[in-house]
Amino acid sequence: MIFSLFRRNPRRMAIATLYARIADASRRPGLYAALGIPDSLEGRFESLSLHMVLSLRTLRELPPPADEVAKDLTDAFFRDMDASLREMGVGDTVVPKRMKKVAAAFYGRAQAYDPALTSADVAELAEALGRNALGSDAPAMMLARYALAADKGLKGVTLDVLLESGPAFPAPEAFTEEGNR
Q1: Which of 8, 44, 126, 158 is deepest in the core (most CB within 10 A)?
Q2: In sequence order, what DSSP letters do the residues of 84-128 get, joined into one string?
Q3: What is the rounded average pLDDT for all residues in the chain?
Q4: How far apart are alpha carbons 139 and 137 in whole angstroms?
C-alpha cells in the first residue's frame, strides 16, 4: 500500500505537463515587451490567469473527461499559487487569507473576460484587460487581439491534442502595431 504513493500517476503527470505548458506560454517575453503586461509579480499573475482562462474555456467545450481535466488543471493552478506564496515567505497562518484573495482575483478575471471572449468583443475585452492585466484605464487593444486570436485558435482542439502538445498560443509580437501592418 505504501508503495502506491511512489508510483507515477499518468493522469497527474499529464495535468502537470499541461499546466507547465500554459505557465510557459504565459511567460513569453513578447507578452511583456510587446503587449505591455508589466513584468512584475502582479503582471505575471495576470498573464497566467489569462492563459488559464483561455485554456479552461477550451476544456469547457470538450466532451468528458475534459471537465475532470479542467478541475485538475484548476487545482494545479491553485497549488502553484499556494507554493509561490510560501516560497515568497508568506507565513502559514496568512496563506489561506491570501489564497482567498488569489481565488477571488482569478475568478473575477474569468468572469470579466468570458463574455467578451464569447462575443468576440475586442473593445469590451480590451477594457477588462487594460483594467486588470495592465492596471490602467486605457484599453489593452493589442492584448485583447492576442487573447481573441488565442481563443479562436483553441476552438476545435481535441482533448488528446491538448494533453499531448498543450494549447497553442499565437506569437505575441504579431499583435503589436508593427505586427499588424
Answers
A1: 126
A2: HHHHTT--TTTHHHHHHHHHHHHHHHHHHHHHHHHHT-HHHHHHH
A3: 93
A4: 6
